[in-house]
Specification:
The chain is an alpha+beta fold and 125 residues long. The chain has one domain: Roll (Thiol Ester Dehydrase, Chain A), CATH 3.10.129.10. The protein has 3 helices and 5 strands. A 5-stranded antiparallel β-sheet has the order 1-3-4-5-2. Strand 3 and strand 4 form a beta hairpin. The chain is globular and about 40 Å long.
Length: 125
Amino acid sequence: MTPHTGLSARIELTVTDADTAQALRSGTVPVLATPRLMALCEEASCKAIEGHLPESCTSVGKRMQFDHLVPVGVGGVVWAEATLDRIEGRRLVFTLSVSESAGLVAAGKLIRVIVDREAFLANVR
């Protein structure tokens, strides 16, 4: 199978102390950290294309544009959605959103690139 536009996935997270800016050292407040939100979105993008790449290939993150709009505290529940919007050769362009029951928490774009796993790993420094 090959990836095609429209593929999407959703990942849910209940925020714990380990997900906070304090725990990830990205700030000093006990709220859901931006890096954790970004990782959640990357996880959703990987899940969206799971089973749609050749066995010898994987995808790697290249660029993310991300706006974190509102704080979410410990115990809050968020869900990240990634939808494959465009395919530009080996580049996969996703639209990202993170929401909670009260509305949008974050949004952005992610570019992942399809690579041959062995060739990619041969270039690791």
